[in-house]
Design goal:
Structural class: mainly alpha
Mean pLDDT: 86
Shape: globular
Number of strands: 2
Strand content: under 5%
Helix content: 55-70%
């Protein structure tokens, strides 16, 4: 049997309704066990260190520490690596931290309440709240193409149980919130301009994820969303400047400059491992930062060009709203060089479109999803992702499927769900 024949047979086997139901239950069971085990370990482990290198909540330590510094009136010290590292070490002594703080000053307002509660409670509440916002965004994007409640619930459950979401919950990152904001910002921006504008404005807490949003608003003619986004963004950042002073912006930009230097340089605090970009893959192969960055610029121009072309063709067709949102969300973590695997939560619209609406590739969805699921679950047990960065290649394949989907006679299937 040829390799193509093997994959075809595997896809037919996985396409059986009974096996799809079984795979769904297994995926949900895996996610439930993983998250429940994490919660148990969180509260049963003395302190927040879990072994020599493990930390309960992982990256949440950075948010909690910055929150504590904010409440102490030392917020801007978080931008200084030595001061921030000393604060981190005071809470979790470990040689494996290397965390940096490079969020805009407005982020201090978002995280300030975290340190008002114990660390572990704050971690669980942080993930519950961000996951709830994410679930709301996914539901909003899905309900138009899956009006049947059973289909909607199944799609929502599978997205939340996907490794790219479970990984964020374990990692303690802010990615579920920022992914939700990006999804809401680019879904029907002309029609639901108020929601899109608000989401885009608040997305400026992590501006590198919103590089494609202005282009989307322009191509869609979503000028009201553009204005709302600008007003919201200006307002929240102005408030942060009033609270923390204009020197907070200088400290932020200095931190971004140091981050960029480290990313392009030795990558001591920003290793290329597990990035979703050409830059990360090329750096992981050992090429210089300058070469990797030039290749990243080329790939970003290609994503901007292809994504902009598809949006220009279909921006006025509201029936393609899910597809267009999926295209932008997937492209968002390809165009910025600094994006790690935890940003893959933005792939949810692409997964939903492929499962419910894809004209060309829907028949292959069971095999694609199973393959991606296994890769993301098993990659942590494999040496260096077999020299290939799984997060990057999965994101790239998803983007290519979306682009190739635009060449079909119709992007979406004209059935009861799309």
């Amino acid at each position: 049997m040829t390799l193509f024949g093997f994959f075809a047979a595997a896809n037919r086997w996985l396409s059986e309704p009974s096996r799809q139901a079984l795979m769904t239950r297994l995926a949900l069971l895996y996610a439930l066990l993983f998250i429940s085990t994490t919660v148990l370990v969180t509260f049963l482990t003395p302190g927040i260190l879990n072994g020599e290198r493990g930390i309960i909540g992982a990256d949440f330590l950075a948010f909690y520490t910055a929150s504590d510094m904010t409440l102490q009136g030392r917020a801007l010290e978080a931008y200084d690596f030595e001061s921030f590292d000393a604060a981190l070490q005071g809470r979790a002594p470990s040689e494996a931290l290397g965390m940096m703080w490079q969020y805009p000053p407005v982020m201090f307002l978002v995280i300030a309440p975290l340190a008002l509660m114990p660390y572990k409670l704050g971690y669980c509440l942080w993930m519950l709240l961000t996951a709830s916002v994410y679930a709301f965004a996914v539901k909003r994007l899905t309900e138009d193409v899956a009006p049947d409640r059973a289909v909607l619930f199944r799609a929502l459950a599978l997205v939340l149980a996907a490794p790219f979401c479970v990984g964020v919950m374990i990692n303690g990152q802010v990615s579920l919130l920022t992914a939700a904001l990006l999804m809401l910002a680019v879904y029907k921006p002309k029609t639901d301009w108020w929601v899109a504008g608000l989401a885009a404005g608040f997305l400026t807490i992590k501006p590198q994820l919103g590089l494609l949003v202005p282009l989307v608003f322009i191509l869609a003619g979503a000028w009201r969303a553009f204005i709302v986004a600008a007003l919201v963004g200006i307002t929240i950042h102005a408030i942060s400047v009033l609270v923390y002073g204009p020197e907070s912006l200088a400290a932020f930009f200095a931190a971004v400059t140091r981050l960029q230097t480290d990313v392009v340089g030795l990558g001591l605090r920003t290793p290329p491992k597990s990035m979703t970009t050409v830059f990360g893959q090329v750096r992981d192969w050992g090429l210089s930062g300058d070469v990797a960055m030039n290749l990243q610029y080329i790939s970003a121009v290609m994503v901007f060009g292809l994504g902009g072309w598809v949006w220009w063709r279909h921006a006025q067709d509201e029936a393609q709203s899910l597809y267009l949102a999926a295209l932008v969300c997937t492209g968002a973590i390809l165009v910025t060089p600094y994006a790690y695997a935890y940003e893959m939560a933005v792939l949810a619209p692409a997964a939903i479109w492929l499962a419910l609406c894809a004209n060309r590739f829907r028949v292959h969805a069971p095999l694609i999803f199973t393959g991606f699921w296994l890769i993301l679950v098993l990659r942590r047990f494999l040496p260096r992702d077999f020299i290939l960065q799984a997060p990057f290649w999965i994101t790239l394949v998803a983007f290519c499927l979306l682009i190739f989907g635009a060449f079909g006679r119709k992007i979406a299937i004209a059935d009861s769900r799309c």
